[in-house]
């Protein structure tokens, strides 16, 4: 340490430490890393939102198929008749319109009929959102 004399008083001077910030290169590297990470995170969030919407639609389509199955079972039990052939229609659920098809599946034992149900988003949805095959006894 150096001693300095000021106005006849002795004082010890503290050595100066150079305060140091980030260099321009360090700032630019940090900005590049952030610029690469943010779009990747946004794309991931968008894909998660799309997956959530798809899962909601598939779940709703299964509910439509199950509701239609209950209607088939009630028709069978209350009217004492077996639904045969193919039926089609649409149903509103969760604010969306759903097209459904029910087709009779032949089995070896006619007392145990089978039904194949498909549900698509209306109007004329190309992708089958739910496919349900049921055998009643």
Question: Could you please describe the fold and organization of this structure?
Answer:
The structure is a single chain. The chain is α+β, with helices and mostly antiparallel strands and 137 residues long. The chain is built from 1 helix and 6 strands, in the order E-E-H-E-E-E-E. The protein has one helix at 24-79, and strands at residues 3-6, 9-12, 86-93, 96-105, 114-121, 128-135. The strands form 2 sheets. It has a 4-stranded antiparallel beta sheet with strand order 3-4-5-6, with helices on one face. A two-stranded antiparallel ribbon has the order 1-2. The radius of gyration is 36 Å and the shape is rod-shaped. The model has no long low-confidence stretch (mean pLDDT 84).
Furnish the topology, listing elements before pairings.
Layout: E1 3-6, E2 9-12, H1 24-79, E3 86-93, E4 96-105, E5 114-121, E6 128-135
Antiparallel strand pairs: 1-2, 3-4, 4-5, 5-6
What name does CATH use for the topology?
Pantoate--beta-alanine Ligase, Chain: A,domain 2
Q: Roughly what is the average pLDDT, rounded to an integer?
A: 84
Low-confidence stretches: none
User: What spatial order of strands do you see in the largest sheet?
Assistant: 3-4-5-6
Radius of gyration: 36 Å
The span between the termini is: 99 Å
Q: Summarize the main sheet.
A: 4 strands, antiparallel
| Percentage of residues in strands | 25-35%
- The run of helices and strands is EEHEEEE
Label the overall shape: rod-shaped
Tell me the structural class: alpha+beta
Q: In the residues, how many domains can be counted?
A: 1
Q: Enumerate how many helices there are, as a single number.
A: 1
Q: What is the CATH class?
A: Alpha Beta
CATH architecture verdict: 2-Layer Sandwich
- The helical percent reads 40-55%
């Amino acid at each position: 340490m150096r001693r300095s004399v000021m106005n006849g008083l002795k004082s010890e001077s503290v050595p100066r430490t150079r305060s140091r910030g980030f260099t321009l290169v360090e700032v630019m590297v940090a900005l590049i890393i952030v610029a690469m990470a943010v779009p990747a995170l946004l794309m991931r969030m968008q894909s998660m939102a799309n997956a959530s919407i798809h899962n909601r639609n598939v779940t709703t389509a299964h509910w439509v198929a199950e509701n239609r199955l209950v209607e088939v079972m009630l028709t069978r039990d209350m009217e004492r008749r077996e639904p045969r052939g193919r039926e089609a229609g649409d149903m509103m659920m969760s604010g969306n319109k759903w097209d459904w098809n029910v087709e009779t599946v032949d089995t070896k034992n006619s007392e145990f009929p089978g039904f194949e149900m498909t549900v698509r988003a209306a109007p004329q949805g190309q992708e089958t959102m739910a496919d349900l095959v049921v055998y009643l006894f």
